[in-house]
Amino acid sequence: MTRFRDQRHISPVMRFVQPLVVAGCIFTVYVCATVTPVFAAGISVGDQGAVATGRSGAFVAKADDLSAIEYNPAGLASQRGWRIYLGNRFGYANERYKRSTIWDYSEGRVQNFEEVSNRKPWQLLGPMMGVSTDFGLENWAFALGAYAPAGIASQRFPADGGQRYMLTGRDTKILYYNLSVAWKPNNVFGLGLSLQWVDLAQLDLRLVVNGDIAPASVTPVSNPFDMEARIQGADHVGFSGIIGIWLRPTPSFQMAFSSRFVPTPLEADATLSLSPQNPDIRNATEITRDGNPDNNVTFTMTLPMEFRLGFRYIHLRDAVERFDLELDLRLEMWSQMDQFKVDGEGLDASIEGIAQPVPIGTITLPKNWKNTFSVRLGSDVNVVENRLALRAGAFFETAASRPEYSYVDFLASHRIGASIGASVFFGNFQVALSYSYIVEVPVSVAESDGKIYQQAPGSPCDGPDYDNSGFCDEHYIGQPSATVNNGTYISTYHFSSLALSYGF
Fold first, then answer.
1. Is residue 121 part of a domain?
2. Which of 202, 213, 385, 434 has the lowest CB atom count within 10 Å?
3. Which has the closest alpha carbon to 297: 270, 276, 327, 260?
4. Do residues 215 and 461 make contact, with C-beta atoms less than 8 angstroms apart?
5. What pLDDT score does 43 carry?
């Protein structure tokens, strides 16, 4: 809704100065993006961009600011002149888990667990920044930007909590660098493309594993040889792309489509360290490969394809947009995320109290997720032309996680969300602010249904049948170890986004 000054009225001096200003801004964006710690989860929760967040992500057709590089790069084609954008997303994650009561066969007693929650719920940095321009070309637009995908970056849980065999801590830093181009031959049709360099700048994942190698030994609550395994690594070379299109056959109706058209496999070169949880184990655990000190592992995961379709009604009066209403449908192919895999083949751990080295092998954290579908509805109202706009939105998104594979690292059950926002204009300067509240439908998993098992890399209980051959515990026939994801999962999220933009 912002109108920018006609480039023909800019003085020759400003025509010379503006490219220098923009070049400086691009350099600033690059430095901030690469030097500043950027926190974001690879699994999305909510939306990025202040205007889009205020509309609950119903933005694929409107896409009229720099966040178009994510939602629909074709939207850049209608953005005239130069634009500078700087935004940030603040978040608070209320994530709770209570492992259900179990009968511990190893101790012969009932075991109860306290509820645990994420001890690092605040996320203060989730930036989006960049520059777009038409270079004075009537039908073209270009953009350079960087942003952290919407998500929860960090989690901390107690090392002795009921969730310990799933997760004790997680830090993820991901950044998308974007080079975008858009073209519109007329006011009816536009096409755009964002090429993305995906930087997994840091991965830090921690969980407790059972280091015991005794046959038929299953200890679902604790073991003298429990180790906190910490995987730390990065993958700076990942690539993806987003293509978009919009059609506006009449001034009052617009439809659009965009897609992240390739999945993004990430393979992080990482290291593995093991910390004994038993205070009686005083010596550090040594990790070797072929008898030589070595703790290198590989961590792999995949970011999925996604598709967005939007339908937008624009109410015009005196050729000015008074309000709009947009309905978006989104499909995210999370079935492409089947597991997190830590490949430590060839590594052995020497643990005090165990006579022989413990083979580490491969640690697999199964996800077996399914594709998600969401419906999003959003609207802007131009309260005072070129001065004040208000917006609101709501959405529903189906679950990515199957209940039996529920896991505390990325809670992904059915989601319901609502949002509000506003933009204030000062000439060519815009300030946008939004707030979004998201609640996930609570999930309860019975011990008999759970499919996440205690990691015991050195256990001689070997699949695929896990029969009662003497190596597997008779109380867990058909399972490699004890179920550890039984319990109740509850989560709510609060997000606020602030964006400043200037056009000339």
1. yes
2. 385
3. 270
4. yes
5. 66
